[in-house]
Amino acid sequence: MRLILIEDNHRLSEAIGAGLEADGFAVDRVDTLAAAQKALVATPYDLILLDLGMPDGDGVSLIKRLRHGKVATPILILTARDGVGDRVRGLDSGADDYLVKPFAIAELSARCRALLRRPGASLGITLELGNVSLDTVSRAVHVDRRNVNMPPREVALLELLMRHSGRVVPKTAIDSALYALHADVTPNAIDMALSRLRRRLSGNGADVSIHTAHGIGYMLMPPTNSAAR
């Protein structure tokens, strides 16, 4: 899942971004509301993380503009403003959740996942296809109920394919979901990531298969003698 983090404290922004990326999220970071608006026009994000006290304005104004423009992307406010009035104002402006600084990255990651599980975002807590299951909260992958150890990026890739099982996921969509704008991605990075995931699944007895649509993308298919569970 791809997030945008709107935070002007560069040190904190880097720490948050690193923590979320370690959990499998792709994070783009901007430090002004103006930069955020440009990024939001150009990129379809799954979640917006927003600090209210920005150098070029109040984050609440951005929330109101987005909601007025019918942008339904979930918004999680991150701020040092801990008053009840501040929380009410932020939520009433259209935000979906509110987290007061300082906070643990583990809690932020959990709140991000909770927002992304809400109806309307092609979501669900446990994903299943054939004999493969993925718990989107714990990030645990099982094949025939046996745990399969996977690095965070492979888990994120598997989640993306499982959420679109039976449909081709374009390479551009995979790149957008897995890598932030600032990431140094080699031309064959996606092909290599898919190859590693394919080997890991088959090596652990998974009965699903990853099909290649040459020049377009990839598709995760259930076993031919079984429907998705």
Report on this model:
This protein has eight helices and 14 strands. The longest helix is centred in the C-terminal third of the chain and has 15 residues, at 189-203. Helix 1 links the parallel strand 1 and strand 2 (26-30). It has 229 residues and is of the alpha/beta class. The two termini are 23 Å apart. It folds into two domains: 2-116, Response regulator (Rossmann fold, 3-Layer(aba) Sandwich); 126-221, Winged helix-like DNA-binding domain superfamily/Winged helix DNA-binding domain (Arc Repressor Mutant, subunit A), CATH 1.10.10. The protein is elongated. It has helices at residues 10-22, 33-42, 59-68, 84-92, 105-116, 152-163, 171-178, 189-203; strands spanning 2-6, 26-30, 47-50, 53-54, 57-58, 75-79, 97-100, 126-129, 132-135, 140-143, 146-148, 169-170, 209-213, 217-221. A five-stranded parallel β-sheet has the order 2-1-3-6-7, sandwiched between helices. A four-stranded antiparallel β-sheet has the order 8-9-10-11, covered by helices on one side. The chain has a three-stranded antiparallel β-sheet with strand order 12-14-13. Helices cover 39% and strands 24% of the residues. The mean pLDDT is 87.
SSE sequence, one letter per element = EHEHEEEHEHEHEEEEHEHHEE
Strand content: 15-25%
Q: What order do the strands of the largest sheet run in, or round the barrel if closed?
A: 2-1-3-6-7
CATH C-level label of the largest domain? Alpha Beta
Range of helix content: 25-40%
CATH architecture of the largest domain: 3-Layer(aba) Sandwich
Cα end-to-end separation:
23 Å
Q: Calculate Rg over CA atoms.
A: 19 Å
- Counting structural domains, the number is 2
Overall outline: elongated
Largest sheet: 5 strands, parallel
- What's the name of the CATH homologous superfamily of the largest domain? Response regulator
Unreliable segments of 5+ consecutive residues: none
Give the beta-strand count. 14
**Secondary structure category:** alpha/beta
CATH topology of the largest domain: Rossmann fold
| Number of contiguous helices | 8
The overall pLDDT, averaged over residues, is 87
